[in-house]
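Page 47, continued from p. 46.
Same chain as before, 408 aa.
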Amino acid sequence: MPVAREKEQRRTASTSSDGPSSVTPPTRFFPTDWDSNDHCKGRSLAEAVQQCCSPKCTMSTDIDPASPEPDSVKMICSNDKCGFSSFMHATCFSSFEEQMLSCLRGMSRARNWTEKQCRQNLWTKKGYDLIYKMSTCRCVKGAVRRDLSFTGVEDKTKRKRKKSTSSSEKVGIPVVRSVNGVTRSRSRTSGRSNSDSFSSENGAPHMQPFAHRSDYSVFEKVLPRHLINSYHIKMEDDGYGAGDETRSLVLSSLAFHHTNQVDCVLCATTMSVYDQFPLVDGTFFLSPIKSSDRSLEVEGKGDDPMFLSAVCLHCMAGVNRVSCRFCSAVWDGNLHQIGTMYSFNILSSFPCCGASVACNSCQQQLVDPSKITLSFCQLSSEVKCSHCGSVDYHYIKPLSRFSISKNQ
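Result:
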């Protein structure tokens, strides 16, 4: 009887006038601000679209997608019905990125990555595929990631402030600058706002987004018809996800250097970079040696950096004659695919004479160029000279080895 009485007392206490005992649910990291109709609770759709997409946003200001703040970060949500803003406050993004980095460091496939590699790969396919399940958007129905093709917005308030200056301040000292090997001059005025201005007020260069290719007419003018195909030209529809990592590496590296154009390392032709394959009217390649001032430093596999360079379509197709100064052999760029990026130096991939395989120290010939069996990657790697013992990138020669004759 005492046991039965004790059970009855407990049952009475649980159904007292105060109602059933409330159990505090566990706090969710990502808030659920949406109802069954995909509308933000308590706010109109127009107001929700201007809300920061960070799941833990603490800022009181909204972000208008039509005119975002200059330091805001463009994001992409996998939920097509997401009604939040596609931008994130700089402060919110910094916190969100650090959390994603913490998740990435805990992944088994990324445990051997350095801090620099983690940050480089976080928003590319290589790293994002590992943590996308943790990168939940504020709408809770999609995963959010950074838009690497977005290169920033211009601060319109600064432009208005510049235009309001007196005309007496518009007369200044001409300034000469060299950008990508091209020297340009302009007047240092506080009222300039033309297209020739490539630096913002805080000193960081301003650039336009990457171009979008609408047709392939540029290839039809240079290449014969039998070479205009997906085998010779890297196309966007070469399979699901094909080349995503390559494209992300190129676009993120150029965005880091605040440029949407590259110059051919052979003839200095300026080329626009596109947001989809073919990425450029030519091709990119990586090299452990900086052969030209037009090459851009990018993240390498280890601690040593790599250098991103480009060769234009005219030099690859033979419109511009590229020949060896020592043996007059013509370099044939048609052997390489257009519009993509190679992980080795394509200019050293086909040795033509003894000078192209000579040691950089003792000038002795390392191998017979007519019987060479090394792979393309080996020709871009460090090797030891059998004569003097010097370890160097002996097969990568300076660009002065080539003679370029432009076709006018």
